[in-house]
Design a protein that fits this description.
This protein has one domain: 2-Layer Sandwich (Muramoyl-pentapeptide Carboxypeptidase, domain 2). The longest helix is centred in the N-terminal third of the chain and has 18 residues. It has 192 residues and is of the alpha+beta class. It comes from Acetatifactor muris.
Length: 192
């Protein structure tokens, strides 16, 4: 997949963590019975190969898309974000310190990040962020897909991140993704 790079650290419990997040999210958004049924239907073995993980992602995405409406699919996947062994909080706190040091001025914050090549911008009071690489170890060998189902976890991750940074609720939407064949992922953050 174009613009894919493995994260610096991949958890040795990657598959178990992935299944537990999925189960928890299915229980929260649908039911315990459905969660158990789907987990049994698409097992994921520990220490699976990148090809097996990519195939599992495709099967799971198809199951979710065929059984639930788009809103439910988004909610399920947004609850499946990982925190990369605490990296989410570390990143959020570093960004928050920068934001606070700039007197909570969103324009100055974006400009400061863009000095390091972030490519972020503000349009119609919404923040747009770019991600130039996909570091999801589940997608290492995945093919491009028009579906955003798998990528909604990135929206959940960024929702958590930006709510820490800005100390208020945000809505995050994926506008486009590397998985769709674009050169970068583009997310729109709306302040609530």
């Amino acid at each position: 997949m174009k613009n894919f790079s493995m994260p610096e650290q991949v958890s040795p419990t990657l598959e178990i963590d992935e299944l537990m997040r999925l189960k928890h999210s299915l229980e929260k958004n649908v039911s315990r019975e459905v969660a158990e049924s789907i987990i049994k239907e698409i097992p994921l073995s520990i220490n699976s190969t990148p090809d097996i993980r990519a195939e599992w992602v495709e099967k799971l995405s198809a199951i979710l898309e065929n059984r639930f409406d788009k809103k439910t699919v988004k909610n399920i996947r947004q609850e499946c974000y990982c925190n990369e062994n605490g990296r989410l909080e570390d990143t959020a706190n570093n960004l928050k310190q920068l934001y606070l040091s700039l007197d909570k001025d969103l324009h100055r914050f974006v400009n400061a990040l863009n000095e390091n090549g972030a490519g972020w911008f503000i349009k119609d009071n919404q923040l747009y962020t770019k991600m130039f690489t996909c570091e999801c170890p589940m997608l290492e060998k995945a093919k491009n897909s028009n579906s955003l189902t798998w990528c909604h976890c990135t929206a959940g991750y960024n929702k958590k991140l930006f709510e820490i940074v800005f100390e208020k609720p945000v809505y995050v939407e994926i506008v486009q993704s590397i998985r769709q064949g674009f050169d970068f992922c583009l997310l729109r953050i709306t302040f609530q």
